[in-house]
Write a structure and sequence with these properties.
By secondary structure, the chain is mainly α. The protein has one domain: Amino acid/polyamine transporter I (Up-down Bundle). 72% of the residues lie in helices and 1% in strands. It is built from 20 helices and two strands. The chain has helices at 10-15, 18-21, 32-39, 50-57, 61-85, 91-99, 110-126, 129-144, 153-172, 176-204, 210-213, 225-242, 258-295, 301-345, 363-376, 382-409, 411-414, 426-452, 456-466, 468-485, and strands at residues 4-5, 8-9. A two-stranded antiparallel sheet has the order 1-2. The longest helix is centred in the middle third of the chain and has 45 residues, at 301-345. The radius of gyration is 22 Å and the shape is globular. Mean pLDDT is 84; it is low at 1-10 and 12-24. One of its GO terms (molecular function) is transmembrane transporter activity.
């Protein structure tokens, strides 16, 4: 018999949302290897932060990356279990919405609001990746091709955004399996140069260990409240990158066998990230030294490639690295579109965002995301966009981890079938990391933003998050009207 509480059929909720049951479902067309191919761009998320982290932490940034990937494993064990408990939920956005789902009796249910806000926060966390990497593509191309030096960084980034977003929109409109094929191609073209550029200094002797051991922290570093808040802010930005392989779970409704495919895709991507994040920061700092990294804060892989491969090798490697950036743009594009689709199908966002084309692609959401990011490119600085985006990510992670705690503590939810289970007692670990996100990392990122780039980034972050309230109120009214007509 299905478990029920306060009018909610949790077994049915775990298997099928209202809109999904009515035929608006995404199609189950991929296996775990294809999910991994789409998510494998996540290691590239380190690129905007290499120089930024070094400016605050010097060589200790290497340790922060390692701890952040470890945090990812702790959190993703919980998410892996939730993904198999709610096989039709689209990753973090879907988990929170299913766990906090209201009883359907109230027009404006606070449970729906909490779950929907978590999904919106997650959308805002992934969405700006498109703008960040369009800016980086423009920067790398300008540094690589002298003929482009006469153009403004903004015009190059905008042009890159238009070309990349349009191409990916066209390819992925044919279905997620087409996106996976694109992922295979880009993964081959992109991870190889990243590995070559990163490993070459160790083989050529350009890597100098004393560049790391001689500069663990800035000379004025102290373990006082000021620096602890900075460190919390850095951790908030680090998890935006190093924990982001949870995106492999967002394709839950599109895996052929979600019970086994999700954990395989999730932790395979995590293993790649564990290796990549530590090694890239180590190679860059050990080869260039802290001062060398700070001299190229936006594109430190350029001098690393030049030192390791020479002029010709640099051209080849950077072109392939640009392909890697396109890969992570695709990862973010698909993930944020499915977050919007998930909110719309749960009635927490206007239903227009849940529209899918004949190939099962949430095309309206993808068009809106592309246009939004063309506007974000005007920020100009990747770290400013990242800092605003990180506010959304700590909110999404915090609420999702609290959702896991509720799913394990509530007798009705705990009785649901779980093909994959985290270790015993993991709800307490999830609660601990949930509290680390909210409030600690949230306070840290707001404080760090105020020091680095003023209040603009924080204000933008909170404005975007607050925009959810009128959208949610409208969507609840839309659902209420549809029920009355039924």
């Amino acid at each position: 018999m299905a478990s029920k509480e306060e009018g909610v059929d949790w077994q049915q909720a775990a298997q099928c949302s209202k809109v999904v049951c009515e035929g608006g479902s995404l199609e189950r067309t991929i296996d775990w290897k294809q999910g991994l191919a789409i998510a494998i761009g996540v290691p590239l998320l380190i690129l905007p932060s290499i120089g930024y982290f070094a400016s605050y932490l010097y060589s200790f940034a290497i340790i922060v990356w390692g701890l952040s990937v470890f945090q990812g494993f702790m959190q993703n064990l919980a998410y892996g279990e939730l993904a198999t408990t709610f096989p039709n939920a689209s990753g973090l956005p879907g988990f929170a919405q299913n766990v906090f789902k209201g009883d359907g009796k109230s027009k404006y249910d606070k449970g729906n609001l909490i779950g929907g806000f978590s999904a919106w926060s997650y959308w805002f966390a992934w969405n700006p990746v498109l703008a960040i990497f369009a800016i980086l593509v423009g920067s790398y191309l300008q540094g690589l091709i002298p003929a482009l030096s006469g153009y403004s960084a903004y015009s190059l980034s905008l042009a890159a955004g238009v070309v990349i977003y349009s191409t990916l929109l066209l390819i992925n409109s044919r279905g997620l399996s087409s996106g996976a094929t694109m992922g295979y191609i880009l993964a081959f073209l992109s991870l190889a140069p990243l590995a070559i550029i990163t490993l070459s200094p160790f083989a050529t002797g350009d890597f100098v260990l004393s560049n790391i051991t001689g500069s663990w922290f800035p000379a004025d570093w102290a373990w006082d409240l000021h620096h602890i808040l900075i460190l919390l802010g850095i951790f908030a930005m680090a998890q935006w990158s190093a924990c982001a392989w949870e995106t492999a779970a967002i394709y839950g409704p599109e895996y052929k066998k979600p019970g086994s495919d999700v954990p395989k895709a999730l932790f395979s991507c995590g293993a790649v990230c564990l290796f990549t994040y530590i090694l890239v920061q180590t190679a860059v700092t050990g080869t260039l030294g802290v001062e060398g990294v700070l001299a190229q804060p936006v594109s430190p892989m350029l001098p690393l490639a030049q030192a390791a491969l020479g002029t010709v090798g640099t051209y080849i490697a950077i072109i392939m690295l640009v392909a890697a950036m396109v890969l992570i743009i695709q990862t973010a594009f698909l993930g944020s579109a499915r977050a919007m689709h998930s909110m719309a199908t749960e009635g927490n966002l206007p239903r227009v965002f849940g529209k899918i084309n004949a190939n099962g692609t949430p095309i309206v959401a993808m068009v809106v995301i592309a246009l939004f990011n063309l506007g974000l490119i005007s920020f100009g600085t990747p770290t400013a966009i990242l800092a605003a985006s990180a506010i959304g990510y700590v909110c999404a992670n915090g609420i999702s981890l609290f959702a896991y705690f509720k799913a394990k503590s509530n007798p009705r939810l705990a009785a649901l079938d779980r093909p994959f289970k985290a270790p015993s007692g993991w709800k307490n670990v999830a609660l601990l990391f949930g509290l680390f996100n909210l409030p600690l990392c949230l306070i840290g990122i707001v404080y760090l933003n105020s020091l680095e780039i003023g209040w603009t980034s924080t204000i933008v972050g909170f404005i975007v998050l607050s925009l959810y309230i009128p959208l949610w109120l409208y969507s609840q009214h839309e659902v209420h009207v549809a029920k009355n007509k039924a």
